[in-house]
Amino acid sequence: MNRTFIPNELTTPAVLVERAVLVRNVAAMAAAMAAMRIDLRPHVKTHKIPEIAALQLEAGAVGLTVATIGEAETFADAGCDDVFIAYPLWLTAATASRLDALARRCRLSFGVDSPEAARNAGALLGRATRAAVGVLIEVDSGHHRSGATADSLVGIAEAVTGSGLRLGGVFTFPGHSYTPGGAGPAAADEAAALVGAARILEDAGFDVPRRSGGSTPSALLADRNGLTEARPGVYVFGDAQQLELERIGVDGIALCVAGTVVSRHESEPRRVILDSGSKILGGDRPAWATGFGRLLDHPEARITALSEHHATVTWPDGARLPELGARLRVVPNHVCLVLNLVDDVWVCDEGAVVDRWSVAARGRNY
To answer: Is 40 helix (H, G, I), strand (E, B) or coil?
Structure first.
């Protein structure tokens, strides 16, 4: 595969997906989870593309994970019949009505992390929905974002069942896996939190059929005795964060942003400017990251600054600067942001454009 070639018909900046790498990534994660006897429920907020979700389901995923009701609607429209909204929802009359409609079209589950949210959902959802949906309690496994503590679990479960809802299990996000050296400890924290939460609830008389966790950095380190399902998302594409965390290699990068050199400077700092700024790459840069992304074919270069339509790429001494008009492949730091910034992606195979996929769930943020 010629990864340095960008099809001439594309105007930059453009998002390119290497189909062969994508398919290989999908198959590899599906096989790994099957070998671990953990159900795979990939998080599709990463790609927001029905064609990729179909590949994941065909490879053996039991269903999909989404972050919003809007994403759930998009993938239900595309034919997915099992969707988990892995988010502590606080419903309104309007959003409850949308969940009522969704529950008639697919197997639906969603998250809460407080008794108040559970009682609010029970008061607003229709009777048929209350009987059909599964409510999973989010637990904090060390990321310290949303998620309940152990001492609050029984009270939340009582609020769920007391509101006429069905307790579907527990879930967590080991987000602290996104740090150097953090994947192993985060996977251990995840398993301990899920097993501990399930034990507390089962001792109190509740059934806990699902223990849901997973992130791309920690998925392959997951404890099959701790999780019944995993929800990685970034693995389909890879990104610069995964490269720097050494969770993937360059051969696992399936998505790049094609950018053109529009300005070139031999004076210090030696640099080129690409036409791919924060409005297509996103602006994430963890404190440990060495830049705002990587160049796939020039690993020694660093993206040191982003403006809305400019990427400043510094070049090391002794390395030849790309010429004006050169087209380069940029690996974004956080690939999930990119897909919420573009309407479609170009699918490539052996340097040729073979398809164009709409980012159907773009902007479905609520």
So the answer is: strand
